[in-house]
Amino acid sequence: MNKSACIDVQSLSVKRGxxxxxxxxxxxxxxxxxxxxxxxxxxxxxxxxxxxxxNQIVTSGDVTVLGLPSGxxxxxxxxxxxxxxxxxxxxxxxxQNVAYFAKILGLPDEEVDRVIQNxxxxxxxxxxxxxxxxxxRNRVSLAIALLGSPEIVILDEPTVGLDPVLRADLWxxxxxxxxxxxxxxxxxxxxxxxxxxxxxxxxxEGRILAQLTPGDLMKRTGAADPETAFLxxxxxxxxxxxxxxxxxxxAAPRHRASAEKxx
Amino acid sequence: MRRTFATTGRVLKQVRHDPRTIALMxxxxxxxxxxMAWIFTDTPAxxxxxxxxIALFPFVVMFLVTSIATLRERRSGTLERLLSMPLAKGExxxxxxxxxxxxxxxxxxxxxxxxxxxxxxxxxxxxxxxFAVAALDALLGISLGLMASAFARTEFQVxxxxxxxVIPQFLLAGIILPRQQLPDVLESIGDxxxxxxxxxxxSDVAAGTADSSTGFSMLVIVAWIVVALLVGSLTLxxxxx
Lengths: 263, 241
Description:
Radius of gyration of chain B: 18 Å
Largest sheet of chain A: 6 strands, mixed
CATH topology of the domain at 5-187 in chain A: Rossmann fold
Helix content of chain A: 25-40%
Strand content of chain B: under 5%
CATH superfamily of the domain at 5-187 in chain A: P-loop containing nucleotide triphosphate hydrolases
Structural class of chain A: alpha/beta
Low-confidence stretches of chain A: 239-263
Oligomer: heterodimer
Largest sheet of chain B: none
Mean pLDDT of chain A: 85
Strand content of chain A: 15-25%
Low-confidence stretches of chain B: none
Distance between the termini of chain A: 35 Å
Strand order of the largest sheet of chain A: 6-7-8-3-9-10
Shape of chain B: globular
Number of strands of chain B: 0
Order of helices and strands of chain A: EEEHEEEHHHEHEEEHH
Number of helices of chain B: 10
CATH architecture of the domain at 5-187 in chain A: 3-Layer(aba) Sandwich
Number of helices of chain A: 7
Distance between the termini of chain B: 30 Å
């Protein structure tokens, strides 16, 4: 493992029932960059992120985070994790949600204010989560993931269902976070978001299709947009590229639907 | 301890945002006890059944509330998030148990006050012992509810555990027919079920005949609580498929 790698994955396989969800993945990720984990729904993104956090039962292989096996007790203070479903309590206010998780992490009240501010929720802090829009709920979940300035931040589809302005705001926030030197992994099934990352990991059907910079992706495929680039990579690497050309059906915003991939 | 209390506080805050649930939890037991008293107006039966009702409510209500609350934690992803943080499983479980026990004690105080002062139920024994047994019943409901939630994947399933786990205990506890009059096999099963002991203990307290057998009943309930909590905590896994 090289010195700057904050996440080191070696021959990781995950089987769920009879399905091989992740198939012999090996890669290393560096801190201080936005790492985009991109791939269509069902490609194994969430399972991979859960393996890094240490919540996933792994069939074989090693996942090392900050030099420790993933899921180690010492990592529980250092990893901020935002699950795909906004894991927050509907029947509490934003502030009560954040304050509870802050207490679990042993953090002071100022930290609660800071992350609420960071997620741009200060004005809504006393509203119940159940009354919030999907995007606002997502940001509550994000605020909790940022509690205590963790060294590793894993965000599972944080921009799903957000309008373009919010989405741009969030990517700016991610850039600022990455600039502080933490290890930031953001998953998305929106290929256009690849361009906002410093490095991308393309996942398809449980395998790594490529690990490269957005610039390299465009250069290597000669495509005009990341969408086409992804399709070209698949065409080059497999025999059944039709699998991801199904039209978008999930929470993606309508006006961007043409640029999205889905189940 | 800090995280246990944080969890208790959080659960209580959640309940506070749901006034209808609070009202149902606090008022329904009294209404049902009142109905019982009314049904048996001209018979001495209420004096026999009344204490069992006080034992039954904290158990049933807490079983339902806990099993659904924990299932919601599992399904919403909040449990997964909590377990990726430095929260011990015991802190999670005891945080929940403490919150619901507090609510159960409140509920019992109201239900038994109603039974005693409005419906005329006579309690010859100690009130403190009455509340202690009722709190144990609540803990029993909480621990069994926690265990049940581990074996359910949906709200529909978890609600079905109520008739499956609670009604047989109710039938074999001796309320409908004294346990001594049950067929031998059923009698010996009933003798080991926790709700039977909860009802025995409360009836002893009500009759003012609490003795060492009451203590034994309370020990049996505690043993069930410990086993159910252990099984429940084994099913809280940091790593899941």
